[in-house]
Amino acid sequence: MTLTLRPFVRLAAAATSVCLTSLAFAAPASVTVDGGWVRWLPGTLPAAGYLAITNTSDQPVDLVGTSSPDYGMTMLHVTRTEGSTSKMEMVDKLTVPAHQKVALEPGHYHLMLEQPTHKIAPGDTIRLELKFSNGETVVAPLPVKPPSATQ
Ligand SMILES: [Cu+2]
To answer: Which first-to-last residue range defines the signal peptide (predicted)?
Structure first.
């Protein structure tokens, strides 16, 4: 009885150590992206991308870059309203404080998507890659919606 059990126990122990090793190499992601979508506009007008970024770590994390295989140019913008006029400014980075969620939404922070690399229309899904200051990259699929969409 004892003899037949031993090899089994040894195998189980080996399997456990393999699991621990792979966990140690794959650090848990501290940034997640959800609720993303794109407001498509006709002709050569740029599209706008919206999404929410959650930082579950104890340190602030900056969104420092975006790219997409579907658009030649992606930029982080913020809309600033002064009196009755509003204008868009380019932003280098967006800080997500520790344990906070920051939303990119109409009238505020957004992604400007220009120079589509192929025909894109409402109903499509584009792929957006977001790079963060902690070295993490998040890939988010964003559904493309018509100009009338608000969320
Ligand atoms: Cu813009």
So the answer is: 1-26
